[in-house]
Amino acid sequence: MNRFAFAIAGLAVALTVSAQTITVGSKKFTESYVLGEIAKRTLENAGFQVDHKQGMGATAIVWGALKNGDISMYPEYTGTVSEEILKQPRASREAMVTALAKDGIGMSPDLGFNDAYGIVMRRKQADDLKIAKISDLQGHPDLKCGITHELLGRKDGWSPLLAKYGLHFDDVKGIDHALGYAALYAGQVDIKDCYTTDAEIKKYDLVVLQDDREFFPLYKAVFLYRLNLPQKAIDAVAKLAGTIDEQKMIAMNAEANQSKDYSEAATMYFAPKSSPEAASAQPKPVGNSRLDQLLPETLRHLELVAVSMAFAIFVGIPLGIWASKPGRLGVGILGVTGVIQTVPSLALLALLVPIPFFGISFTTAVVALFLYSLLPIVRNTAAGLSGIPVPLRESAAALGLEPSAQLRKVFLPMALPMILAGIKTSAVINVGTATLAALIGQGGLGEPIVSGLSLNDGPTILWGAIPAALLAIIVQVAFDLLEAGIVPRGLRLRPQGYEHDH
Amino acid sequence: MINLTNVCKRYGSLTALQPTNLEIPSGKVTALIGPSGCGKSTILRIIVGLVRPDSGEIRIDGARMDPESSLSLRRKLGYVIQDGGLFPHLTARQNVTLMSEHLGKPVDEVQRRVEALADLTRFPKDSLDRYPLELSGGQRQRVGLMRALALEPSTLLLDEPLGALDPLVRSGLQADLKEIFIRLGQTVVLVTHDMGEAAYLADQIVLLREGAVVQQGTLEDFQKRPAEPFVTEFLNAQRALVAL
Ligand SMILES: Nc1ncnc2c1ncn2[C@@H]1O[C@H](COP(=O)(O)OP(=O)(O)OP(=O)(O)O)[C@@H](O)[C@H]1O
Ligand SMILES: [Mg+2]
Asked: What global pTM score does this model have?
């Protein structure tokens, strides 16, 4: 929050003394610093001496400093004023001005840009369906929604939005903010939430639908100041009205982030960037009991793990058999599966989501998990088979067993402990990795984790993290029991030299 | 009867077997002997089709060993390597019956055969359901022999069957082997390092050196009519070993 705090020494004197010191404050993030610098420059140009106390802290601190006169001005957002400071949700500008005046505080006109939530669509689809406003979405329940966990989780978020506009959608998924843009661009979803200053809106040629019933509180940038400031100072700041649009703020923030010179960034002319101050509004956890969701989320998690593991086993073992044969093919198979393993899981999702066949589907989640589970199975199968001593291989062949029967009756059973160990490793990794499925709306125990992360809500994260960890342990123990059950005693004994070199 | 005609095998620049002609008579025991690396195992592996010769042909009772015929010919051969070559995930019994069951033979017939083979090889029946690692070296060797004999092969190929055993067990098993050979009257090819063992078990001995046959005959032939000075050298070396 940018605060222009004018530190005013004495009000009575202020009217007669033109050169007095005004203290401007700001909150602790780039945009606030830059706006603070802009206020400072503006007041200096009006003939005042100005001191800028940068990065004082969060809303409560800066607001407190303004109220008790430590500072005289700071940059703020209208949504924060109504929701957080005045606790009058959706208060009108007039109502806010009146309420602030009781504390001796004034509010400047809007500087221009708005850092609020919005709803975006692809421009082409919006044009085709003649949708310009959120209310135009009525009668389109078939449009697919990819909504951030933050908005889905907030009490004043997605559900009340639907209620206010009388909307219904058949397909609503929770999806990561950045992946959601990729999915929207690829046509996997049609509707997504955004911050109105997101750079992707321009990049992907999206339109922000008009919030015609004013559901989202406006987060318009303003300056709050003490009413006892000299009128000349108040007038100077009022002239900033409407001079900073989204583009300008984005450019200034980018500059400031890069150079770390806020004064220089402000020189770009109130060069702005926008960082959603919306984030300072307190997120409220969703109302549904986490306990009720634990079972379905766990079952969903197991479904993701089971399906992807089944494919990994049925593909991984044959690949491992192949890879165990000498030659380039074997090296190639191990190489490729090894490389897949090194791709960060989030990056793998990001690669798959834009592909039309995949998108943000169960298939994508399963395919990503499948790819991650492959390596331990392939590698262990190959190692188990190629570790079989040559004399035993020759004995199997010399018996007159066909190659397929040698594999089935002798080699694979001998490699079984290794193969099982590979499957166990895969399954344990898979249980952990499957939490990422929530990023593309596929649920599972990642749902509370992702949701908790975006709402900065520790307990919610634990509702996913602890069951996932327990699940991994259970899987491990289950495989140990399975191993004891199906590996013949002859393979569990310690080998003592039956592998004589021949 | 096994015939090797002009059979030759090289590994890169190393000649494991020079062009060799060898006739192994039916119903007789033939021992292959010679210094380490002279190609004894190579000959057995060529006969059983595990190694393809670079040239020449192998006939087993007149049938040519080639990739197409190898499967059916192998089932008429019993092949045993040092320590038995048993599969560790199968019990002694399962090792012996693996092939019979694969071929779909009746269960009771197969089990009767296991009992008979255990008698023949003097393998303790109460150990039949143990895994190879739960058996002694001599017992493993007996199971390897049972497995080789399971399909009643016409020919038995033994590669140092007694190599890993201590002398006492070894002499016991030698006597048992001799009895088995006599009772079954099969064609047997046996690889050994020990001239005494060869003379005791075999009807004819084939002495090899550097991938070539030096002399073929009985111990008496070797002693009285050595084909080369090497034959006498070899016998002397063996005797020196025994004298120790
Ligand atoms: N797969 C192979 N690749 C390369 N060389 C081999 C291979 N198999 C055998 N040889 C070589 O061929 C030669 C004959 O080997 P072979 O196993 O027949 O000897 P051997 O007479 O059985 O010896 P030993 O008494 O030590 O068992 C040896 O020099 C050996 O190193
Ligand atoms: Mg050998």
From this structure: 0.69
